[in-house]
Automatic annotation (TrEMBL):
Its EC number is 2.8.3.19. It holds the Pfam family CoA_transf_3. Keywords: Transferase. The gene is uctC_7. It is an enzyme of class 2 (transferase). InterPro entries: CoA-transferase_III_domain, CoA-Trfase_fam_III, CoA-Trfase_III_dom3_sf, CoA-Trfase_III_dom_1_sf. The lineage of its organism: Bacteria, Pseudomonadati, Pseudomonadota, Betaproteobacteria, Burkholderiales. The keyword Mitochondrion does not apply. One of its GO terms (molecular function) is transferase activity. It comes from Cupriavidus respiraculi. The keyword Transferase applies. Signal peptide: none annotated. This is Acetyl-CoA:oxalate CoA-transferase.
Length: 406
């Protein structure tokens, strides 16, 4: 009898791709983490003394990790390297020669001063996909301006869309521009890697926070151009669908999304016991409800406060109307839904003990991409990488350490 062999899982999509991550803070590291989550070997370069700026942001985990750093650096290896030193920059160039992708977010011209610019590196590695992330387009008059998420949120107009009517500009709760830039950058890098398969040549991917921040405007941006003015603010409500938003039950908030006229009829009849409302011409169609939202919504809010949240959720679900609780961040992370989806990865940190990090959002063939490596300690893999990729021996590594290069 032949023993049945268990089929090995397929390799991760980017297995065999090496990424040299010279970036810091959020947009660049988020981009590199997306590639790492998909299987790339990402080597994160950090200053030997300071490390990434975000090692000093957020809640401390052990001696040099933090909640902020850990959020953008899972599945990476960390090496400490002083790029300002001649030896450090030389080592980085040697690593770039063995890499498929380089990501950097130095100020414009900064990488070139270190000998780490695109044209300098592609001379030794013409297949290199090189991603530069800056605040503003590198071919614009503002190319040398530093880029910051909050500044771009203001300049791109997206702060003007947030909040309730009459409220001043309001930023997103997270650094949305940085995060969008990281994701757009990863998409562009993947496209360049795909094109390289047929051309054999790398590309210079050039991304800017302002460009990506403006993309967040999306349909609101199109509306502003068509109307010639800023769209009105609707807070948690929808600009064109009513009722649709966050509402208060007797014991807490929930989301109710009534997307069409049939749903509104079921909502009134089976959920809130107001079967006469769909017969009222002011509320019969979504267009009419939107025009008369100032009449409908106050009446609806009064009715909803007479129900418990659990009762409303039960009724809404039975009526096939999309709905959900509004949870706090901690409750959402600890929810059964999060656990069942495998979105929280628990690991043992050698300094801080039991810790958690978000798992990658990517799933393929019924399997979530794994957390292969927890967020690294600063310079944790320096010796490993320099030995493995550059064949440095113990004496050479000790000499680099004595000079503060690593």
């Amino acid at each position: 009898m032949h023993q049945q062999q268990t089929a090995l899982p397929p390799p991760l999509p980017l297995t065999g791709v090496r990424v040299l991550d010279l970036s810091r803070v959020l947009a660049g590291p988020m981009c590199a983490m997306a590639l790492a989550d998909l299987g790339a070997d990402v080597i994160k370069v950090e200053h030997p003394a300071r490390g990434d700026d975000t090692r000093d942001w957020g809640v401390r985990i052990g001696t040099r990790n933090t909640s902020y750093f850990n959020s953008a650096n899972r599945n990476k290896r960390s090496i400490s390297l002083d790029l300002q030193s001649e030896d450090g920059a030389k080592l980085a160039r040697a690593l770039a020669a063995q890499s498929d992708v380089v990501i950097q977010n130095f100020k414009v011209g900064g990488a070139e001063k270190l000998g780490l610019g695109y044209e300098q590196l592609r001379a030794d590695n013409p297949r290199l996909v090189y991603c530069s992330i800056s605040g503003y387009a590198r071919f614009s008059p503002e190319a040398e301006r530093p880029g910051y998420d909050l500044v771009v949120q203001g300049e791109s107009g997206v702060m003007a869309t947030n909040g309730e009517a009459g409220q001043g500009p309001l930023k997103f709760g997270v650094a949305a521009v940085d995060m969008f830039t990281g994701m757009y950058s990863a998409q562009a890098i993947l496209a360049a890697l795909f094109a390289r398969q047929s051309t054999g040549q790398g590309r210079h991917v050039q991304m800017a926070l302002y460009d990506c921040g403006l993309m967040i405007a999306s349909y609101y941006g199109m509306e502003a151009l068509l109307k010639g003015e800023d769209p009105p603010k609707f807070g948690n409500a929808h600009p064109s669908i009513v009722p649709y938003g966050v509402f208060d039950a007797a014991d807490g908030p929930l989301v109710i999304t009534v997307g069409n006229n049939g749903q509104f009829q079921r909502f009134c009849r089976d959920v809130i016991d107001r079967p006469e409302w769909p017969e009222d011409e002011r509320f019969a169609t979504n267009t009419a409800r939107s025009a008369n939202r100032d009449i409908l919504l106050p009446a609806l809010r009064e009715v909803l406060r007479g129900f418990s949240r659990a009762d409303l959720l039960r009724r809404l679900t039975a009526a096939q109307i999309p709905c959900g609780e509004v949870l706090g961040m901690f409750d959402a992370l600890q929810s059964t839904r999060t656990a069942q989806a495998g979105l929280l990865h628990r690991y043992e940190d050698s300094e801080a003990g039991a810790q958690s990090v978000l798992a990658p959002p990517y799933a393929m063939d019924g399997q979530r991409m794994p957390v292969r490596r927890p967020p690294p300690h600063m310079g944790e893999h320096t010796r490993e990488v320099l030995t493995e990729l550059l064949a440095l021996d113990d004496g050479q590594i000790a000499a680099l350490q004595s000079r503060g290069v690593i």
